[in-house]
Design a protein that fits this description.
Length: about 325
Amino acid sequence: MTGTITDVPGVKVGHAQNTEALTGCSVILLERPSVCGVDVRGSAPGTRETDLLDPMNMVSVVHSICLSGGSAYGLDAATGVMQYLEDQGVGLDVMFGVVPIVPGAVLFDLAIGDHKIRPDRQMGYEAAAKASKDAVAQGNVGAGTGASVGKLNGFANAMKSGLGCASVKLDNGLVVGAIVAVNAVGHVFDPQSGKILAGPRDGEGALIDSVEVMKISAFSPIPPGTNTTIAVVASNAILTKSEAKKAAQMAHDGLARTIRPIHTMNDGDTIFSVATGEVEATVDLIGTLSADVLAAAVISAIVHAEPAGGLPSYTSLSNNDAR
């Protein structure tokens, strides 16, 4: 077990990033077409192919999922993933070739690094070509390269976040994993201790509670377009399309346990849920474990992040120790 989403049979991950521009994308590549559902809770999402995943619609499987920085511009990265899969002959057979099904979601990282450089078709192709079963690199990589948290006291007082993973395996062979790029407007806290791990800072650099900042503001202090946490939870369970969607809904509890505030009007929080179809399991179990591993993945994204773009990270604060 690597402790990452690639522990789930049939799931590979590849990253590509520009460390100077501070943006990138992460591709979840599936070794065989797999059932997928999605649940969008933020009110300002940037997504593609999410309507296709509605249980009422025809296509029941996907071939890959692309998570990207770059705001809406970053949706272009999924086109590169499609091109890579087409080159491999992978996709939905439409008699005149194949059409790879690649849903995706983006986060806003234009406030850090070079906003003129965004994940594009070439970066998406590169990430897909790198996809492997190896332990997933975490922190300032892929879709987490430009991720940040704690923006309610101004971006200059925010902190660097990143990409995180977690997984769990049961005795019956069921594996559930998560990958998440954490780009929240609020703070991230440890659900066990309640300690704020990363968030807005005051003038002396001390961490402060995001909700307390909101309480003293006469207007909404949430900057538009500066948010969004995007994730994929995956299991080797046998699920229907509607059950996969329910698991995605339940997985959002993992964000609520670790990020405050969450699902605001300026967030685009989106979770995809993939089932590769090997082990019998109830949707209630899959949804519960998905929330658990997603919460752990959020914490992992924070503790693996490194300072960048003038922002400190969890490990760079003097009162914190790397986990």
